[in-house]
Amino acid sequence: MKIYYFLFAFILLVSSCSTTKNSIANTPEDKALLSAIKKLDKNPGDTGLKNALTGLYNDASKVHLNNIEIYNSVTDAGKWDKIINEYLALQHLSNIIHSSDAIGRLLKVPSYDAELQVAKQNAASDYYNIALDYLNANDKESYQQAYHAFKKANDYVPGYKDVKKLIDKTYQKSVLNVIVNPVTDNSFYYHNIGRNRFGNSFNNDYLQRSLVRDLGGDYTKNASARFYTDWEAQSAHINPDLIIDLTWVNLDVPQPYTSQYSRNVTKQIETGRDTSGHIFYQTISATLYITKKYFTATGDLESRITDVATRNIVNTNRYSSQFNWQQEYATYTGDSRALSNSDIAMLSNNNYQVPNKEDILNELYQRIYPQVKSGIHNAVRW
C-alpha cells in the first residue's frame, strides 16, 4: 500500500483513464454515421445514403443520450467524466455535420455545447462539495483527498469559485515531511570482516544526502513530499510524517581470487626486400604469463519507511546491487616486438590496488541508486 494513497484518488484516475481511452464518437453507430458522411462527401448524388442519413444519426445520438441518462442516475461523482465524454461525442458529430453544407442541409441536428458546459459546472460543484466534506476531518489524509477533489473541480471549470486558493491551502496541509536517515550497515561482512579490514572511514550519509537532494529537498514545489536529512530536520524544527531508514542487510566483498594462464602471441615483421621489391618476412613470438585478480561484490539495501504518528512500517523494499572488479598483469618471455599495445599495458599493471570499502560501496550505490530513488518517490506519492 502506498503511503497516504487513497481509494478516492484511485477512482478518479481510473475513471479519467477509461474515458480518455474511449475516443470521441467511437461507437459502432458513430462509425456507421461517419462512414456514410464520408461516402456522401465523395458521392453527393447517392440517394440511398441520403435516405439513410437521418436514421443513422438518430441511432448514434440515441446511444449517447441513453448512456447519459444511465450515468445521471449514479450518485458517484466519477460519473461526470463519462457524461462529459458522451456530450463531447454528440458535439463532435454535430460539428462534423455542420461543417459540410451538403450534409447540413440534409440533417438538422442540435448543438450540445450548452449541455456540455452545464455538465462541467455540475461536475465542478460536486467535486468542490466533496472536497469541503473532506476538510471537516482536519487530518493530513483528508487534506490530501480534498486537494485532489479541488484539483478535479478546477479541471472541469478553471477558477471555479475560490478553488485555486483552496488547492494551495490543501496542498500546504497535505505535503509530507520526510526524513532520510544515514545508511546503516548490519551486514555480516561489516561486523565480522569489514570493520577490521577497512576501518570506519566510509561516509554513510552519502546516499542520504544524494536522495534528499535529488528527490527535491525543501525546494521542490507541488511535490507530494519534502525531504530532509535528520540533521536538517532537527535544525529547522521540522516535525516529520515519515522516516526512511536505509540498511545494508547483505554485503559480500570477498578477498580477490587469483587465476593464472599463459598466452602465445606471434607477429610477422619485415626483414628485407630483394631487387624486385619482394618483401621478406620473419615470424616472431612471445609468451605472456598472465595473473588475474578479481572479485564480485554484492549487496542488498533495505529501505524501510515508518509512519511517525502510528509507528507502523508502511513500506519496505529491498534492492540488490553487484560490482565486478578485475585486474590483470603479466610478464613475458620471447621477442617483445610480438606484443600488442594491450599486452604491453598489462606488463605495467603489477602495481594494482584492490578497491577499498568506500570505493566498493560507492560502486554498489551507483548501480542501485536509481532503483532506491524511484522506489521512495513512488512510495510517498499521494
Describe this protein's structure.
This protein is α/β, with parallel strands linked by helices and 382 residues long. The protein is built from 13 helices and seven strands. The chain has helices at residues 7-21, 28-42, 47-72, 79-98, 101-106, 113-135, 140-156, 163-174, 188-198, 206-215, 230-235, 341-347, 357-380, and strands at 176-180, 184-185, 225-229, 242-252, 257-273, 279-307, 313-334. Strands 1, 2, 3, 4, 5, 6 and 7 form a seven-stranded mixed sheet that branches. A hairpin with a 5-residue loop joins strand 5 and strand 6 (279-307). Helix 3 (47-72) packs antiparallel against helix 4 (79-98). The longest helix is centred in the first third of the chain and has 26 residues, at 47-72. The protein is flat, with a radius of gyration of 35 Å. The N and C termini lie close together (11 Å).
Q: Which helices and strands appear, and what pairs or packs with what?
A:
Layout: H1 7-21, H2 28-42, H3 47-72, H4 79-98, H5 101-106, H6 113-135, H7 140-156, H8 163-174, E1 176-180, E2 184-185, H9 188-198, H10 206-215, E3 225-229, H11 230-235, E4 242-252, E5 257-273, E6 279-307, E7 313-334, H12 341-347, H13 357-380
Parallel strand pairs: 1-3, 1-4, 2-4
Antiparallel strand pairs: 4-6, 5-6, 6-7
Helix pairs in contact: 1-4, 2-3, 3-4, 4-6, 6-7, 7-8, 10-13
